[in-house]
Amino acid sequence: MAVVKVDKLARSVVEGPSLMTGSIPTRDWMDIPVVFKPGNYAYPTKPNILEYLDSQAGVSFPNAREWNPEDDDWKLPENWKEIIINGLAERLGKFRSLKIFMDCCVRCGACADKCHFFLGTGDPKNMPVLRAELLRSVYRQEFTKAGKILGRMAGAREMTVGVLKEWFMYAYQCTECRRCSVFCPYGIDTAEITMMLRELLHLVGCGINWALEPVANSNRTGNHMGLTPQAFKGNIDFLCEDIENLTGIHIEPSFNRKGAEVLFITPSADVFAEPGLFTCMGYLLLFEAIGLDYTWSTYASEGGNFGLFTSNEMMKKLNGKMYAEAKRLGVKWILGGECGHMWRVVHQYMDTMNGPADFLEVPKSPITGTVFENARSTKMVHISEFTADLIYHNKIKLDKSRNSHVKATFHDSCNPARAMGLLEEPRYILDHVVDNWVEMPENTIREQTFCCGSGTALNTDEIMELRMRSGLPRANAVRYVADKHAVNMLACVCAIDRATLTTLMQYWNPDVEVCGVSELVGNALVIEGEKRADLTEGLRTMVF
Amino acid sequence: MVTGLKETLQSNKKKILSLWIDRTLNSYIASGFFKSSGDRFANPVGVNIREGLTRLFDLLLDKADPKEMLAPLDQVIRIRAVQEFSPSQAVAPILELKWVIRQVLGSGRNKRPSAEELDNFDCDVDRLALLAFDLYSECRELLYKNRVHEIKSGRYILTDSACASALAGNKKTGCAGVETS
C-alpha cells in the first residue's frame, strides 16, 4: 500500500519567503519545537485543585506543582519518561481502539484539512493526522519492531521533553469535536487520541486549570461552578420570578424530590449565566405548560462532564453521579437539557462505564405515551427529542409570531450531531417555533458541523486569540447567512456553545446573538392563564 | 515610453494579484491548502484573503473612498489579528503590494509608468496600510473587551465568591479560585 510520508503532507511549497510577512522556511515537522507564549496556551492546573482531586477515590492526579509552560524546566518528576511509556503501554492494553488507531492510519490525508484548528491557524501539526502522529511516533519507537530498528525512517522518535511539550500544546489545540473522524476512511476517532494524550500528560501533572477546576467543583458540590445547593436553588427561584414578571406564570419547581417521575439534568451554565439563563427559562415554562412531574437535583446539578476532557476514570465518576442521584430519588428516567458533551458521554461511554441503568424504566413520555426506544439502555432522553415529540402530538400550543424578532440559523453542536445523531429534532422544533430560519451551507452543518472552537475546556479567556481563529470556520459560515438572509440569531443545543459562540459572534459577526432552541420554544409557548407583557425580545425583554 | 499607470496595472492585474496573494498566503506554514481550495466554507482563510486583496486592488485602481475599502480590508485583517503574527506581520501584506507591483512591472515587456504616478499610487497604498493598522488595533481591543466581558459575565464571580467552604478556608475542599494556603 502506498503510504504517504507525513512530512510530505505537512510541508508546503514556500518560494521566495517574505521577511515582512513572517514566512517560515519549512523543516521536517519533528524538527520544529513548540514555543509557548501568552495567548497560545491555557493556564496549568492550580496545585491545590490537583492535590484535592488526587485525594479522591477512584481517580489519580499525581505530581501537583507550580509550573509554567513558558519555562524551560517544567519540573517534571524524575522518572517522567518511564511514567509516560508505562502509561501508554497500560492504555494500549486496556483500549483496543487505541491500539488500532495507532496502527491503521495510512496517512491518506482525508482528515488533514477538516480540522477547524488547522483551517484557522495553517499550522500543520493541527492536521488531525499529524496531531495523532505526535503520539504515534513515540508508539512506533517503543512498541513496534520497525520503529525500534529503523527509528526516524519508520516515523519513530524518542520520547523527549520536547515531545511532551508538543503534546501539551496540541492536545489542547483539539476540541475533540470529531469532524475529522467523519472523513476518515478507517473511522479513526482522533478525539480519543487527544483524550489519551491528555491522560498521559496528567500522569506527570501537566493539565489545564480550566478543565480540572470544574472537574474538582463537580466532584465536590455537583456542578462546575462550585455552586452550593442553596445557591443553585436560589438561581432557579430567581429565574422563576423573572418568568412570572414576564408571563404571569407562577412556577414552583421542586428540588431533590423523591418519587418524582423524571429527574431533569442540564448544564449548570443554564442556571447562572447568560444567555443560557433564557434557555433554562424555556425549560421551566415548557414543563409548567405540560404539567410534568419532575424534579431538579442540587447534587446532580451539572450535565456537563469535564471528566471527558480529563481521564476516563474521572468521566466515569462524574457520569455515575447522575445515575446515583436518579437511583436515590427513585425517579423513572432522566431528562437531559441542552448540553453537548454530556450526550457524548451518555451515548458513547455510559453503557460500558456505568450502565446499563437497569434500576430505571425505559423512558416513556407521560404526556404523549411515546416510548423512547433509543434510550432503552441509558434511560436518558434529550430535551429536543422530548419537545419534538410533544409538538408532533400537538400537546403544546405555540405562537410563532412571538419569535418575530428572530431570524435564526441553526448550529449543530458537535457532540449531539456527531456523537448521538441528533440532527432532525432541533430542526423540527425550529420549524414550529419561528417563522423563518435558514440553514448554513451544507459542508458546515449536520455531521460536518464546525466546532465553536472552544470545547473540551478550551473556553477560557487567556487563549482568546486561539479560540477566535479556531472558531473562524464556524463564524465564517454564520457570516454568510447573516449577510445573505439577515440572520440575527444563532440557535444551538449546547451550553458551551451558548457561552463561547456569543464571544465568537462578538468578534466576527457582532449583529448575531446566540440562543438555545428551548429559549425559542419558551418564547413561543402559549400557556393557559398567562398574563404576558408585550415581549418584543421574548424572554430577553427587560420588564420593569 | 511612459504610459498611464492604471492601464498598466489593469493589464497586469492577474500577475500582480497572483503574486500578492501568493506571498500573503506564504506567511502560513502549511500554505498549500490555503492557496488551492476555492471553497469559501472549507477554506475561510485562503478564500477571504484572496477575495479581500482582489477587491482592494480594484478599489485602489479606482481611487475609491477609504470607506469602501474597510469591508475588504476587514476580510484580511480581522483574520490576521488573531493569528500568530506580530502586529507588523499582520498588516505587512498591504505594504508588500508596492514591492509586488515593481516586481511585475519590472519583468517582461511592460511599459514603464511615470515615477510621479507610481509615487501617488504608493501613497494610496500607504494610506491603506495605515487604515489596516487602525483596523488591527480595533480587532485587538475587541479581543480584550471580550475577555473582560467573559470574566464579568458570571463564572468568575460565582466561582470565587459564592462558595461557603472556600470562605471557611478548608484546603481539602479544593475550592475554586481561592488560595487557601
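The first strand of chain B starts at residue 2 and ends at 3.
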